């Protein structure tokens, strides 16, 4: 290798290099979650304060548990971890299979939102 | 903010739920600007990586279809109450990402179609899409400096809209203006929802 030192590393990690890790590398090549569908606005909450590393859980899994100490949507998790949504869905499936996260499906998948929800949104927006 | 589920006496009913509103329109019309103007944080960006199975099912020409494509969506969050979180999603502009729109619009309570009077035709695909799907929407004309001001009825006529579709002027950079647009949309969506509910 003729490349050496810092300059060689930086060639690969600057913004123009694009993703350094392929999107499905962190899922072990899996494109679909083992369980769950995970709408973009499904709300995720961690069920435990922290999780110690164990077999089958990677740093991204642990990062999600950390992030979801405060309720987050699937879209927010993807944005904060800078991972594609599809990848996050797979990781969430793993966590759900271990009961490490709790998912709240959005209102809309249950049916047409109630009249009261519309009113709450209008009042909430007025109060902003 | 912390949501202490276990401290709530009433149980399941108090768990928060999320709803979404879409912000659509042509490229550069101010979708992300509007999302940012009313959201509680700067707009976030999420990406869907689409592989062969997702892209161009009608494209059999070969290698192109095997590439992965990244579709970026900007979105923001407004916490309405402890029980209700509203997400605003800017829709990806390119027509070839319609299937991402399908996922986005599934269960959306309504959509804002942002329009620029200098390039009015750019919002036609969005309008067609929401009309087709029956998603409640309104048209908000973003008032760009230097653009000729049109009367709202002129815009309504130019877009050939159902007279019930609200059309209003807005400044996508302004929080109060964006707020007003969203309130008008939710009121409109509520009216449609109530009317449909009565028929059912």
Automatic annotation (TrEMBL), chain A:
InterPro entries associated with the record: DUF742 (IPR007995)
Species for this entry: Micromonospora qiuiae
Protein name: DUF742 domain-containing protein
Automatic annotation (TrEMBL), chain B:
Name of the protein: ATP-binding protein
Gene3D superfamilies: P-loop containing nucleotide triphosphate hydrolases
InterPro entries, A to Z: Gliding_Motility_GTPase, Gpn, P-loop_NTPase
Pfam families: ATP_bind_1 (PF03029)
Keywords tagged on the record: ATP-binding, GTP-binding, Hydrolase, Nucleotide-binding
GO molecular function (one): ATP binding
CDD domains, per database record: Ras_like_GTPase (cd00882)
Record bears the keyword Lyase: no
Family that this chain belongs to: Belongs to the GPN-loop GTPase family.
